[in-house]
Design brief:
This protein is mostly helical and about 90 residues long. It has one domain: Helix Hairpins. It has helices at about 5-10, 15-30, 40-60, 60-80. Helix 2 packs antiparallel against helix 3. The longest helix has 20 residues, at about 40-60. The model has no long low-confidence stretch (mean pLDDT about 90).
Amino acid sequence: MRTHYETLGIPREASSGWVKRSYRCLVKIYHPDRFPSDSAEKAEAEKRIRDIDEAYSVLSKPPIRACYDATLRSHANLRWEAEPEHCF
């Protein structure tokens, strides 16, 4: 599962300006109108743009971003604790 940070191609410590610049750049690249209609590329671009929009909607709002970061930290801790003993 990709994080919103991975979707936008930015680190977790990125500023709000960095989030916005990355979003705008990716929208220009993946905007569905840039691809031929009824093509596989357009369908993929539509999916990517939905993911990019969702990531931006979370990371552009500080209170929602803080909750999202807390969720990521708790998931990382659970994954680390859930390692089977034979994997060490």
